[in-house]
Specification:
single chain, about 500 residues, alpha+beta, 3 domains, 17 helices
Length: about 500
C-alpha cells in the first residue's frame, strides 16, 4: 500500500491557497467549501476524504485517499473506460464524470493522488428513506428505481462493490439515482484482482472475502435493500422498532450473521405478511457467498428459500449484555465503537470515522461569531466529560444545521439531554486549542461535526451498555462467520451444509 497523508495532514494542507494546493489547472481556480469554523469542510470515510471545490458555477467532489491499493491508477483507468459516455447506454444517468490524477494534491511539499468528480446534489439513499419511510408511494417508486439500477449494472457487467445508503444519491424528489465512490468497483478487465475493500458490513454477505471480486458483488446488497424497503412499505413502524438509521436499514451485520436468532428477523416475521422475502434473505445469509442468486430471480420470486425456516423468538428490547443469555449476538458496527466518556483514549482516533456511544454530561448552547462572519450565530455543543485535565471531546451542531432545524421546527438537543446516552457515527476532527480561563495553556478539544440531525440517536442505557460491551470483543471486520447458534448450542461453529440440514429438520 502507498503511504498517504493522514486526515490532519490533509486538513492542514487544505488551508493553503488552491493555486498551491492542486495541480489541476481548473481546481487551481476553485474555492474550497468551509464550515462555520472557517476550516475546509471535510467529509470522511474509511478510505478517503472529500473536499467540495467550486470553480465558477461548477462544483466538484475532490476525493483524497487515506488508503488505496498500489494499482489504483490501473483500476480507475479500467473503471473510466467502462462507464465512459456511450450513446448506446445510460451510464451518465447513474455515474458521475471523474478524472484521476496521480499527482493531484500538495501535502507538505509532496504530491499525492486524487479523484476529481462532478458534485452530485441530493439526498443519500439513507437520508431519503429516513425522510420517507412513512410514504408508501415514495418507497414503491424507490424499489423500482433500485431494481432498474441493478438490471443496468448487470447488463454492463459492473459491480460497484459497496452498494449501501451512503453511496447512492437521490435527487429531484426521488426521480434520479446516481452512484458515488468507485474505489471498490469491478469492471471487465479487472478479473483476477482482489477486492480493494469489503463494503459496508451492514449491507454485505457475512461470508464475503477479498477473493470475491466479480460482477456479482452487488447482488446481496440489492436483495437486502429490496427486502428492507418491502417491509417498511408494509409496516413503517419497523424503522423505529429496529433502531434503523442511515447506517442500517432494518438489518445490521449481527442480523445477517445469525438470521435465525435475530431479533429483527423475528420482529418482521410476527408483524408482516408474506414472509417469503424474509426467508429468502435468511437463506441467502446462511448459504455460501457463491450461492447468492441473481437479484432478478429474486425479484421474479423464482428463488426458493430453504425449507422449514423459522425465526427464534428474540425481543428487540435488548437487556444489558451481562443479563442476556444469547451472547452469540453482539452488536456489530461498520466502524470501531468507542466510549465518548473516555476523552483521553479518543485522541488516538483523530481522523478516524468511528461510532461514539456516550453519556452527555453538559449541553452548551448560545450564539457567537463563526469564521469571518461578524453576525452572531447559534450553536449547540454536547460535552461528555467534566473539564479536568484541559482535554475535551464534544459533538458540535454548527450554525447552518441549527438555523435550518429552527426554521423547520425540528427537535434539537437541550438541557434535557444531560445524562442521556447517545450514539453518532462520524469522523473525529483534528484537535483545536481554545482559550479558557481555567487552563493557561488553553483547552484542547477534539470534536465531531454533526452533518444532519438523524446522525445523533438517543439510546436507552441498556442499549448503550449492550453496544459498548459488544465492542469489547468485536472489532470492525471480525464477523462470526458460520457461527449459527441456537439456544443451548451457543458458540459452536457449523458448516454451511450442517446449518442447512439442521434447518430442514425444523
Amino acid at each position: 500500500m502507498v503511504k498517504l497523508p493522514s486526515l490532519e495532514e490533509y486538513l492542514s494542507a487544505s488551508q493553503q491557497n488552491t493555486t498551491i494546493l492542486f495541480k489541476d489547472i481548473e481546481l487551481k481556480e476553485g474555492i474550497l467549501e468551509t464550515n462555520a469554523l472557517g476550516l475546509p469542510r471535510i467529509r470522511s470515510g474509511n478510505f478517503a476524504i472529500i473536499l467540495k471545490v467550486t470553480v465558477n458555477n461548477r462544483r466538484y467532489a475532490v476525493r483524497c485517499f487515506l488508503h488505496m491499493p498500489d494499482d489504483v491508477r490501473d483500476r480507475y483507468e479500467k473503471i473510466s473506460g467502462a462507464i465512459a459516455k456511450d450513446s448506446s447506454d445510460n451510464c451518465e444517468d447513474y455515474f458521475s464524470k471523474f478524472s484521476f490524477f496521480s499527482e493531484g494534491i500538495n501535502v507538505e511539499g509532496s504530491w499525492y493522488p486524487l479523484i476529481k468528480m462532478e458534485w452530485v446534489n441530493g439526498l443519500t439513499l439513507g437520508e431519503f428513506i429516513n425522510k420517507n419511510y412513512n410514504d408508501k408511494n415514495s418507497l414503491l417508486e424507490l424499489r423500482e428505481k433500485l431494481k432498474n439500477l441493478q438490471r443496468f449494472l448487470s447488463i454492463k457487467k459492473i459491480s460497484h462493490g459497496d452498494i449501501q445508503p451512503g453511496n447512492i444519491i437521490i435527487s429531484n424528489d426521488g426521480e434520479n439515482l446516481k452512484i458515488i465512490d468507485y474505489d471498490g468497483m469491478f469492471v471487465e478487465g479487472l478479473e483476477g484482482k482482489l477486492a480493494s475493500e469489503l463494503g459496508h458490513v451492514n449491507f454485505q454477505h457475512p461470508k464475503r472475502e477479498k477473493l470475491n471480486f466479480n460482477e456479482r458483488l452487488d447482488w446481496f446488497a440489492f436483495i437486502e435493500l429490496d427486502v428492507a424497503i418491502n417491509y417498511l412499505i408494509q409496516n413503517p413502524d419497523l424503522w423505529e422498532t429496529t433502531y434503523s438509521d442511515e447506517e442500517g436499514i432494518l438489518f445490521r451485520s449481527g442480523d445477517l450473521n445469525n438470521p435465525l436468532i435475530s431479533p429483527t428477523f423475528y420482529e418482521i416475521s410476527k408483524s408482516c405478511a408474506n414472509l417469503h422475502p424474509l426467508k429468502c434473505l435468511a437463506s441467502i445469509c446462511i448459504r455460501p457467498f457463491e450461492d447468492i442468486p441473481d437479484p432478478r430471480h429474486y425479484y421474479e420470486e423464482n428463488y426458493k428459500a430453504i425449507d422449514g425456516i423459522e425465526f427464534s423468538q428474540v425481543t428487540l428490547k435488548r437487556k444489558v449484555v451481562t443479563e442476556t443469555k444469547n451472547k452469540s449476538q453482539p452488536y456489530l458496527s461498520e466502524y470501531p465503537i468507542r466510549n465518548g466518556n473516555h476523552t483521553e483514549s479518543l485522541f488516538k482516533n483523530i481522523g478516524d470515522r468511528i461510532e461514539i456511544i456516550g453519556k452527555v454530561v453538559d449541553v452548551r448552547s448560545g450564539k457567537t461569531q463563526f469564521g469571518n462572519n461578524r453576525k452572531l450565530r447559534p450553536y449547540i455543543y454536547l460535552d461528555f466529560e467534566e473539564l479536568k485535565n484541559g482535554k475535551l471531546f464534544r459533538i458540535k451542531f454548527l450554525p447552518d444545521l441549527v438555523e435550518g432545524a429552527i426554521l423547520s421546527d425540528a427537535i434539537l438537543p437541550n438541557e434535557k439531554w444531560v445524562l442521556k446516552w447517545i450514539t453518532i457515527t462520524e469522523t473525529i476532527q483534528p484537535q483545536n486549542i481554545i482559550n479558557h480561563p481555567s487552563f493557561p495553556d488553553g483547552l484542547t478539544e477534539i470534536f465531531m461535526i454533526v452533518k444532519n440531525l438523524n446522525q445523533v440517536k438517543v439510546l436507552s442505557e441498556s442499549e448503550a451498555i449492550y453496544r459498548l460491551n459488544s465492542s469489547d470483543t468485536m472489532e470492525r471486520g471480525l464477523l462470526y462467520k458460520n457461527n449459527i447458534s441456537t439456544e443451548g448450542d451457543i458458540g459452536k461453529k457449523a458448516s454451511n451444509q450442517q446449518v442447512i440440514d439442521t434447518i430442514k429438520r425444523l
